[in-house]
Design a protein that fits this description.
168 residues; 3-stranded antiparallel beta sheet; alpha+beta; globular; single chain
């Protein structure tokens, strides 16, 4: 029988038999965005406390953390503009995926954002310090390798870009 061991504002620690795992609190979800601008992909780099260093990632954000019932596509549009400064004319869902199912029950909605217009600088909220990268598709593997060589952590979801099929 599952038992909540600890709950914070965003996370809940659960023990279920011999399993220990983390869930999002308050029904919060997440959206991950594959944003393409012409022949380029928009990536973000930001400091991640659990890693103790900067991490290269697809833009992403929480769904429903500020307003209950927020739709994943609306959250994705909001987060894309906040983090990257780009607004998408078209955002479509590619489905729901699970981050690390042996440790976390979190699912995220993967979306594709296209027909982008630059409307701001991006960078996230004041404490996020996000750097925005516009990387040509043909240079993604080299860009990721260079960031790794600099000591930047690489989010596993970037494997989507290395495989190439998600870009359409």
């Amino acid at each position: 029988m599952a038992q909540i061991v600890w709950q914070g504002q965003y996370l809940t620690m659960i023990v279920d038999g011999r399993w220990e795992y983390v869930a999002r609190a308050r029904g919060i979800g997440a959206a991950v965005i594959v944003a393409t601008d012409g022949d380029a992909v928009i990536l973000v780099e930001q400091y991640r406390v659990p890693l103790g260093r900067r991490c290269l990632e697809l833009p992403a954000g929480l769904v429903g953390d500020d307003s209950a019932g927020e739709a994943p596509l609306a959250a994705a549009a909001r987060e894309l503009e906040e983090e990257t400064g780009y607004r998408a004319e078209r955002i479509v869902s590619l489905g729901q995926f699970y981050s690390s199912p042996g440790m976390v029950s979190e699912a995220y909605e993967l979306v594709r954002a296209t027909e982008l217009t630059r409307v701001g600088a991006g960078g996230g909220t004041a404490d996020e310090g996000i750097t925005v990268h516009r990387v040509p598709r043909g240079e993604i593997a080299d860009f990721i390798a260079a960031k790794r060589a600099e000591g930047v952590a690489i989010d596993g979801k970037l494997l989507l870009l290395l495989g190439g099929t998600i870009l359409g």
